[in-house]
Amino acid sequence: MSAELPELKNFDEVSLDAAFAKIQAEAEAAVAGKAFDVETFRLQWLGRKQGRLKSISDVWLKTAPPEAKKLIGQRFNALKESIELTLTAKETPATKEISGLDVTLPGLTRRVGVEHPLIQTMAEIVSVFQRMGYSVGLGPEVETDFYNFEALNFPPNHPARDTQDTLVVADQEKKPLRDRLLMRTHTSPVQIRTMLEQAPPLRIIIPGKVHRNDAADATHSPVFHQVEGLCVGEDITFSDLKGTLDYAMKAFFGSSVKTRFFPSFFPFTEPSADVQISCIFCNGKGCRKCKHSGWIELLGCGMVDAAVFEQVNQRRVELGRDPVYDPAKISGFAFGMGVDRIAMMKYGISDIGLLYSGDMRFLEQFGNQAQFA
Is the pTM of this model over 0.85? Predict the structure, then answer.
């Protein structure tokens, strides 16, 4: 333990130097002792409550006459700095002799990352439509029932909702149905959000992740990706839709690809169609992958239903905006395709689960983009 702190009687520089020299010698003796311990020394000298420097500050510095405080403070600071430097030196481990670098040892190679095949495919599809003048639209994955269903002509209890069953956020029974939150089942809500924000004409392409209550198997996943498009303006016709998709399929799959349209049904388009492309594996001759038909069904499309424009106008009025989507003056088309299925076709993947497995043995194959067979 440190000795009792003596009382200062004289405050001239000689007396103060002698008093602080005695304290300095006491600290050096403690450091040189056989039982020296860094932490014990720190507590005894720098402790905030009972440390030696704390006592010096209370007994010598604070009680000194005003004319002596500066002289004592200078010596106190020098003592504190000396003790802290001593502690730092004791805490720093001794420098060990380090051998030189052995340049004969094999180095570590950092592997270059690549985009996931789904991201690659989605980016390629989007780039095709961007070159046609489409802008990219994005929106939230957690949507309200209004944007995901009601505004797209899926009224409550409509049987078409059964085909897009999804996950809903719990404990929302007290909210109106249109305000309840769910995981979006398609990227179509972004079409509604865009029309609420922008007046026609507009052309947007919408990539994104969607969710449906589907049982997982080789070709289905409860989480998958879509790319949808919307074009709205004056005098937009079904011929414009056919020309747009035919050009896009040729740009993505190759100039020899053909397209054909079959009548279908979607609540938000009328008329609606399913689009098939000639088989990219057998050039339309018929093979196992196209079930020997020569054609592969790839996407759905149609002319925007007037009921959708009416929902948009009604919502725009509620938001204090002009109802500029008059079905008598404008028209439009929409389309949507599954990115996962196109990626599986492009890279020869037989199980959609591989795309979501995170298995590096599978993913590292896509460093060099594969081409169609």
Answer: no
